[in-house]
Here is the input.
Amino acid sequence: MVLTATTVFASFIELGDWNIVLALTIATIKATLVVLFFMHLYYSTKLTKVTMIAAIFFLFLLLALSMTDYLTRAWLTNPGH
Amino acid sequence: MATSDIEIAEHALQHHFADMDQQKESSTFGMWLFLVTEIMFFGGLFCAYLVYRATYYQAFVEGSQTMNIWLGATNTAVLICSSLSMALGVRCAQLGKTRMMVVLLLITIVFGFAFLGIKAIEYHEHWTNHQFPGPNFQFEGAEAAGVNPQNIQIYFSLYWAMTGLHALHMVIGIGLVAWIVIAGWRGAYSPDYYSPVENVGLYWHFVDLVWIYLFPLLYLISKKHGG
Amino acid sequence: MATAVQVTVETENYLNNGYGLKSWLLTKDHKRIAILYLISITGMFFVGGFFAMLIRLELLTPAGDLVSSDTYNKLFTMHGISMIFFFLIPSVPAVLGNFLIPLMVGAKDLAFPRINLLSWYLYIIGAAFALVSMVMGGVDTGWTFYTPFSTTYSNTHVIGTALGIFIAGFSSIFTGLNFIVTIHRMRAPGMTWTRLPLFCWSNYAASIIMVLGTPVVAITILLVALERLFHIGVFNPALGGDPLLFQHLFWFYSHPAVYIMILPGMGVISEVVTCFSRKRVFGYEFVALASIAIAVLGFLVWAHHMFVAGISVYAALVFSLLSYLVAIPSAVKIFNWTATLYKGSIRYDTPMLYAFGFMGLFTIGGLTGVFLASIGVDVHVTDTYFVVAHFHYVMVGGMVLAYMAGLHFWWPKITGRMYPEGWAKLSALLVFVGFNLTFFPQFVLGYMGMPRRYHAYPPEFQVLNVLSTAGASVLAMGYVLPMIYFLWSLKYGKLAGPNPWNAVGLEWMTPSPPPTHNFDETPVVTWEAYDYEHQPDEEVTVGH
Here is the structure.
């Protein structure tokens, strides 16, 4: 619990050149701790764990497959683009 | 009513379940499934955020400068503390310490209101600075930074939509916790039957989780000016 | 089975356990909720059918002379919205699934009966929003609500309709949630996953899609409404917004949605084909896993609706390849049902006739879907009547026929009465002939280039359009007849015993109609699914 509190402070002490990866990594660590221990996922049935993993996976699908469009639009220049 | 723990559990057992274990497992699994839907619900907004941040990064930087990082960080701490009090409250329900549970849940509610209050202050400031998308939108210094102010409107559209949806979930969460407080005070829960407390706790933690991601994504994009 | 089964209607069952409006509107019994849904979605079906009738009437002549262009836009929009969101998506799950899943797994009710009732109320409120919007002038954006027309330029009741769909979406989510928990946690002793009826597997797979996909369309529609109300312009091109983002988010749900619609129908077909071949389904595990595969793969293909919308060619290639893959599990099911027929003892009762229709028409619809997965073909026929014919073949030729098969198959269980078999066979014939006459010409029309959503067309397309409208009239008769004879059967139909079809399954071991609590004692399952070898194949004497 204390660890979660300190990461809040750590995340805004380092102002200046921000790296999104670092910010999201800290957020994910916080999130994982909340899910595992506050929400007792660590102590839950396998079914619940699989359910959560499935949710993250499908969210990832939404984000990743949409990005296949946006990241590759510039690759092929067509007349008129 | 001085009912024993067992009697409370028996009273709460619904007729279509074979026993309390099945009921508890089912209701907890049901709540997790509901949280799955919430993840996908917010997920659509996160997808929009991802797409536009990749496309209009500079505009997002500019928009993010107007966020008050101290208020945001305070709110993050407030929510994490509220999750702590919530988790401890659930633990008390599990141990049958009803008075302590009610106290901890009330503390959770107080934290919840604190969050909403700070958010209201932030909203007021953004509103008076014309940082709400629409015909009245204004943003000085955009051209100086080489950014199309229209794109900054997209940042703010996402800001208001995401934090607004989150705040709505907070309000619902406070209502749910209040319901648990009242029911708990009336002796509805016992170590054999406390799954409503646990499930409301799951919901509350989820709302906290969303904020844990919203904070860096909206507030911490790039601190050019510092502070 | 003794012919002297004197099941009188007076024995205590879920229908006569409590009379009065309140006992129905506040019920927690999954069977009563299923009936409530049956009435509601039938109403919405005829609303959608009414718009279809107007569309087909307009298309009798090449000129746009029956209605104005704006009105025509509203007609096809409201036809699509009523049929998709308020009929097809709830149909089998909310009616048959609600009624049968607890019976099939051996439980007394679904896991969350009150949420089940809430689910129905949400449906009603959503439908009310949509109907009021329709009456007050309608909406003309197409059921797909593409931006920026829907967010900025349309002058119709977008928000009201969008809210209606949003609310109905939560109805769907709660139904799916209920099914998943029930199937995981409330199976009777001995009812292992591999003994579950395939109807349960199919509804389970559809429920996974409901839970994962519906929230995304919910937030997308909410954003459209917010953009119209508060100018929160996430999709507004003037601000740099991308209309294609809307389409990505919309189709992320709406493609899997078509699998929400078809999977439960496939579940019905599994039950009907096995019963009327008196044989265990061929390759049970493959059919079960195919359902899950359809659900998962269905999430990976959505941008095939956007091939010509402006997405990158490389993304289009990825989605095209994935779209080919999703056809495979569906084909596996068709092969397995056909193999089930082999050396089976076939009976040609009405449910089986509809099942045969399904297998043929769904195959045509599915294969034309594979044509559309090819980007080259799609560029030629997209937004033409070819696509319209494709999805009507799978949705109507597939899903509606499966729904009819299920209604007829389980009608005796739900009501305790048999429908009149002669009239039912006639209706099935009318539906089959009418359907093909309506929609096969549309494949040709589309290939020849007639665009969809247009109410005026070049004169050389008229003959095929007239054929299509004629077919629609026949099809309509095929839909109206069951309304009449089902209602007639409630009072005058022959009393059905517990198992008029001699089928295998827990639901057939209860009285017809079942008692409120389903089972007097929790059943213990010791037999495999579709155990027709050990089920005596006696002459069905009750009800014919």
In short: Chain B touches chain C at residues 14-18, 22, 25-27, 29-30, 33-34, 36-45, 47-48, 51-52, 55-56, 59, 132-135, 148, 150-151, 153-154, 157-158, 160-161 (CB under 8 Å). Chain B has one domain: 22-219. The domain at 22-219 of chain B is CATH 1.20.120.80 (Four Helix Bundle (Hemerythrin (Met), subunit A)). The CA atoms of residues 87 and 99 of chain B lie 15 Å apart.
